[in-house]
Fold each of these.
Amino acid sequence: MAASPRPLSSQNCRGNRDQAIRRLEQAIADHESLTITMIKVDPKLDPLRGDPRFEALVQKVVALKK
């Protein structure tokens, strides 16, 4: 499992949504358990909520948990 270059922060999410989404996609692909567990509730990800790409990732994680 590859580690993310650095953890996502709310500043990272606000500053560059595209990069934040790519990092989340990679974390999910790498099965990073903390990202998968916290994606729905982590307040650092609040700036991404409402973005269709982020919402699709949340749905993907929910499906993985089933």
Note: The radius of gyration is 11 Å.
Amino acid sequence: MSDVAERCRKVIARLLKVPLERVALQANFVKDLGMESVQSIELIAALEEEFNIEIDTDRAQGNETVAKAIAQVEETVKK
């Protein structure tokens, strides 16, 4: 797993107050991790701060799984 992916997982676990082990790549934010709608905005902000990037909020809110969120962060970091 890449450094970006691992850092994303840690941010997600910290924000959602779940064990890191539950933040699997295939985990669904709502169904598996219990994320509420307001937390999606908080997650975007936390990832932006962690990586010093600006994330496309509209696209990010469509990310249903951890893997999709990580892919977007990795793509944005490369720009």
Note: Residues 3-78 form a domain with the Non-ribosomal Peptide Synthetase Peptidyl Carrier Protein; Chain A fold (CATH 1.10.1200.10).
